[in-house]
Amino acid sequence: MRFTKIINARIITPHEILKNATLVVKDGKIDEVFTGAIDIEAHIIDARGNFVSPGFIDIHLHGGGGYDFMDNTVEAFQQIAITHAKYGTTAMVPTTLTSTKENLIKTLETYELTTKTHYNGASFLGVHIEGPYFAMSQRGAQDPKYIRLPDADEYNEILNRFPFITRWSAAPELPGAIEFGEVLRKKNIIASIAHTEALYADVIKAQAVGYSLMTHLYSGMVGVIRKEGFRYAGTVESAFLLDDMDVEVIADLKHLPAELLQLVYKIKGSDCMALITDAMRAAGTNVTSSKLGSLEDGLDVIVEDGVAKLPDRLSFAGSVATTDKLLRNLVKNVSISIPEAIKMLTVTPARIMKVQNSKGKIEKGFDADLVIFDNDFEIKNTIVGGEVVYQKF
Ligand SMILES: [Zn+2]
Q: Rounded to the nearest whole angstrom, what is the distance from the C-alpha of residue 352 to the centroid of ligand 1?
């Protein structure tokens, strides 16, 4: 049996913040959490009075550290997981971009290979396929060459071959998108609404067959529109109106200003709102030019003002955020309490990804995915499955 104990900790549990607390990890799981000390033989990590929180769960990102998942190398997958672990991410959902079927299959094969290797970084919670079934008018930085209508032969082949797909983003108003949603529901895959012109009636139909999440709310979707004088609630208002619809937001303060983050929080609350980075290759680097998507086939982008942009500067091309930044932004700029902001990076994304019984909380029996950070939200230590994967002290 292997024990680790984290001492002198300010532990963020689902109910409270415990001061001068100790957390005992046994065989990769959380074993005990209490105020005070205990005398057992264990590897000791002194938290020095810093916060100890459940590790952050990023359910939508494309890359970081100079790599994109669609580079289709094991090295890229590992390096992205290692890079983001330095910023507090302990679990992530690798996300693809709109691409050819062949390229998508290569990415999925590479994921499978990577899960058989060992590396010191965040773990993976399956793959999120973003596209290619999107509305052209709301494509954002998704390559228009590859945007297409739902194709049952294509998605059935992919779904049957790769059982670890856990999430798929599509525009539900497209012909064939409702049937696609039904297939996803049968396979217990999260269907997410994205890059879409869906109005309220479309969203209702989509929800009825299982679409349960809005991909980067506000980005790549419509708000209220008018047709011949009549007003229609857009995708965004539908998300607000439907209690059972979860949302994720890119909380980098670039894609959405503080007041819109506040509005989403006010309406959806921390139970239904997850924070994501949607990070691209340049996250965790200092480069000023980069590529969105694969090195050979991706789109050139510039990195300035703390965000990636298409060269015409008319739209964003992903964020360069890391999860520590999302937390800092919400607490310092959106006036959200630390436990509430943490919840949107842990409990809520864990529930959305259906891993709420093993991840997202500091509670006995849960995976020992933990992050230690100071009052400025600077990451000091990241632990995945009881193993230290990053440490600053
Ligand atoms: Zn994305």
A: 17
227 Cα: distance to centroid of ligand 1 (angstroms): 30
* Domain extents in the chain: 3-52+373-391, 55-358
Give me the CATH code for the 55-358 domain, please: 3.20.20.140
What pLDDT, in 10s, does the model give residues 325-382?
Answer: 999 999 999 999 999 999 999 999 999 999 999 999 999 999 999 999 999 999 999 9
Angle at 104 between CA 99 and CA 110, to 5 degrees: 140
How many CB atoms are located within 10 Å of the residue 323 CB?
30
In the reported structure, the alpha carbon of residue 278 is separated from the centroid of ligand 1 by a whole-number distance in angstroms of 5
* pTM for the full predicted model: 0.97
d(CA 220, CA 138): 5
Same CATH fold assignment for domains 3-52+373-391 and 55-358? no
3-state secondary structure of 271: coil
List residues bridging with 299 in a β-sheet. Answer: 292
Give me the percent of the chain exceeding a pLDDT of 70.
100
Mean pLDDT for 146-163 is 98
User: How many Å apart are CA 54 and CA 345, to the nearest integer?
Assistant: 9
What is the reported pLDDT for 37? 87
Burial 135-174 (b: 16+ CB within 10 A, else e): beebbbbbbeebbeebeeeebeebbeebeebbbbbbbbbb
* Portion of the chain with pLDDT greater than 90, in percent: 94
CA of 97 to the centre of ligand 1 (A): 7
Give domain 3-52+373-391's CATH number out of 3.40.50.720, 3.30.70.2740, 2.30.40.10, 3.40.50.880.
2.30.40.10
Task: Identify the burial level of 175 via C-beta atoms within 10 angstroms of its C-beta, where 0-12 means exposed, 13-18 middle and 19 or more buried.
Answer: exposed
Contact 55, 369 (CB under 8 A): yes
pLDDT in tens, 267-286: 999 999 999 999 999 999 99
pLDDT over 70 (residue 1):
no
Instruction: Please tell me the distance between residue 53's alpha carbon and the centre of ligand 1 in angstroms.
Output: 26
